[in-house]
Amino acid sequence: MPEPLDAALAQVRALLLDPALTRAVAAGRRRGRRPTVVRAELRPVTLKAGPRLQIATSDGARPYTRNVTPGPETAAAVDELLAEPFGNWHVETTDATLQLRVTKSGEAQVHRAAAPARPVAPPGGNDRAKEYLLDPGDEIFTEIGGSAAKRRQVDAFLRALAATLPDELTGPLRVVDLGCGNAYLTFAAYRYLSGRGLDVELIGVDVREDQRRRNTELAQRLGWADRVSFVAGTIADAVVDPAPDLVLALHACDTATDEALARAVRWQARWVLAAPCCHHDLAKQLRAQPTPAPYELLTRQGILRERFADVLTDALRAGLLRVHGYRAEVVEFVDSQHTPRNLLIRARRTDTGATAPQRAEYRELVDQWRVTPRLETLLAADEPPAA
Hints:
Methyltransferase domain-containing protein; single chain; 387 residues; methyltransferase activity; SAM-dependent_MTases_sf; Methyltranfer_dom; 2 domains
């Protein structure tokens, strides 16, 4: 039965301020009204300074996380969120679950249930909790935020990184994260690498100045500002000096991945890990011309053409890296249920040039499909003109 909205929100407020709160999410909007944020998530956390209520909000473009102290500050923050015209609230405590939906008429549909029993896995056996290189509950995520899916991607990326770097690595390690965005990977990589006892200096590059300011403030709050810094600029042109040993790029869109790979080759970086995102460039080229025989069946259906373009793009990227002195492989770094963009180009500089058959293999594939990979264009611009 519908209930008065004010009375239902009072019940939500009581649960949000209850010490037994485990998680709450507000989302959606009421008819004819729009909240200032598209989503809010609340959960209790324990910091070195003591217990806090963590409030993570998103405006649809950027996340924002803050931790408020129990008492008047928490009450004020909760009241501020309850005043937003959210259409739905989902609140969980150790004892109960409450779901509130605001109807078109402005009343509240409220569903209450006892909290489900949480099974406890027996010690040992095959049901042990997954071991993480960087636990999703690590305190740095309290500061930097990030969804559970993003944390899993970052941990999977770190596993690939751990498999790439030699165990006996010593000395300073200079790292650049190209297209770092909210810097989840930047901070997590620093946490992991410094935890290995390495002397790490890490720079994050993103085109947006507001991201640079935000990430710099986070580095200061974490006490890492002397080792983790940020630069505003494009992947191709941002000033990074001296050259890095390790280049990272997580889900740089389309040809931005090519720009990251080209920059790594120019720097002669020792290691490169790039997880591509969308693949539009070669897909567009394939649509613009006839398919070479006898491969028409590969591209006749639109969905197959798009997937083939993905495969061709990353195969040619790996081939070009090999031509420029890298041992490159394409691997799956995270399960596809977490993200469909789950391939990783992992490369290590060998300082040995490609063989003539390897160069011919790459050139034959490009010529047969009559495509011009963006990475080839970028690297050709760095080569001196033929005499």
